[in-house]
Specification:
single chain; 11 strands; two-stranded antiparallel ribbon; 440 residues; mainly alpha
């Protein structure tokens, strides 16, 4: 018991009855049955390709749903789960999380990865159903679940989302495209890359969530994952071929029709859609700023960089030198020793996107993309060891190994200090002309 940690999951009554039936057959307590099922589930999932891992349909439908108003009773029943911390972390790693969901967030955006693992583990041994799940295919592959969710996001897309997605589709098709920033439809390779990457981030990383979207998912699931053609529907969602692409485009166009707009007028989610688009552009801007920051040489033409959104101006200080060794997974000296001593505050990220690309194959990652690590231990995780940022000139840094302090980075983010400087407008300074303290 000393090595176990405790958490809670909320299960519908039908899943609790199935769990009790499994425990009765095995002759084990509910706690032990849950641990056994979760361990078997994790081992099974880890042997599968990430796209082929299984999830329960209730995860995509967010069933049972949280109450709409605070204070209302929550459906289902909380169940205490005691298991080894390592088992719970492994369960989280192999469970489904939809784009825009996070472990700790607003209730509409909260990922329920442990609940997904428990529900899938129970359903793999003992099928269960209730009024909301009756007739639906209980288990589907992760790629199929994400395909269903993308149809949902297309059908419920708001004006700002449709504008970005339609322009990105025009760019992929080689058609002329127009935005408020490009009213004449002129070709601009940099702008096209920005729009393509932002559209990719919107679809795969920063989508918005609401009860209305999950209601739409339930309707689509009834059409595609119920009845004698349920297996074929799941296969179509998994393959995402021409049939799926046609449904996606139809859903995207249907969202702009007057009848659909009237139906959605009572619950207008344009605010969430617009902020999701902003987050997508922001995600690309941060990635590009990291690429700029880690460029080996900052000449006169590249000494400044505008991060937009929100429009901050970064300046590289004199003598700034970035070093990004090949992504072999092992650092050469003296960088490895600096990492071991905890003096390096910047480490390698896991992804590097090619311009306009949808994937990150081996050819796209010869060098690590460097990210700020704010851990109090000031050490890099093992998976992040692949890059280093040197705040001094190359020769002096290799001899002295002076570290870049995290306080320098935070000072730079506020517009002062030895790191890259963000210019502030006049209203961003106090009566002494100094930058006001900005919230972290």
């Amino acid at each position: 018991m000393s090595g176990r940690t405790e958490t809670n999951v909320r299960l519908p009554w039908c899943a609790l009855e199935a769990l009790a039936a499994i425990g009765a057959r095995r002759g084990t307590s509910r706690d032990e049955t849950l641990r056994q099922l979760l361990s078997e589930h994790v081992e099974f999932q880890e042997d599968l390709d990430p796209d082929d891992r299984l999830t329960h349909i209730s995860t995509v439908l967010r069933h049972p749903p949280p109450p709409l108003l605070r204070g209302e009773p929550r459906p289902g029943r909380p169940v205490r789960l005691r298991a080894e911390r390592d088992l719970l972390e492994r369960a989280r790693a192999v469970s489904l999380s939809l784009p825009g969901q996070y472990r700790r967030s607003h209730r509409d955006y909260q990922a329920r990865v442990i609940t997904d693992a428990v529900m899938t583990a129970i359903a793999a041994v003992e099928r269960f159903t209730d009024d909301a799940l009756d007739g639906l295919l209980p288990l589907l592959r992760h790629r199929a679940a994400r395909g269903l969710w993308r149809l949902t996001t297309a059908q419920t897309s708001t004006g700002p989302e449709r504008e970005l997605l339609v322009v990105a589709e025009d760019i992929r098709s080689g058609l002329a495209w127009q935005t408020p920033a490009n009213p004449d439809g002129e070709t601009d390779a940099a702008a096209e890359r920005q729009l393509l990457l932002a559209a990719e981030a919107l679809e795969e990383e920063v989508g918005w969530h609401s009860p209305a979207r999950f209601e739409t998912t339930a309707v689509l699931a009834r059409r595609l994952l119920a009845g004698p053609d349920a297996e074929a529907g799941e296969r179509m969602l998994y393959e995402q071929g021409p049939a799926w692409e046609e449904r996606y485009q139809d859903a995207l166009q249907a969202a702009a029709r007057p009848l659909m707009l009237l139906q959605n007028m009572a619950n207008d989610w344009t605010g969430r859609g617009g902020t999701a688009v902003w987050r997508a552009h922001r995600r690309v801007a941060v990635q590009d700023s990291e690429d700029w920051l880690t460029s080996p040489v900052h000449g006169e033409d590249s000494a400044t960089y505008v991060v937009s959104p929100p429009g901050w101006l970064l300046r590289a200080p004199a003598g700034w030198h970035a070093h990004a060794p090949a992504g072999t997974g092992r650092l050469a000296e003296p960088y490895a020793q600096w990492v071991a001593d905890g003096r390096v505050r910047l480490g390698a990220g896991a992804r590097h996107r090619a311009a306009g690309g949808r994937g990150t194959g081996p050819e796209a990652a010869p060098r690590g993309d460097l990210r700020v690590h704010r851990s109090r231990t000031h050490r890099l995780a093992p998976r992040a060891r692949g890059g280093f940022l040197d705040p001094h000139d190359a020769g002096a840094a290799r001899r002295s190994g002076v570290p870049l302090r995290l306080s320098d980075l935070r000072a730079a983010a506020r517009g002062h200090g030895p790191g890259p400087r963000r210019d502030l407008p006049a209203h961003g300074r106090d009566h002494r002309g100094l930058p006001r303290r900005l919230p972290r």
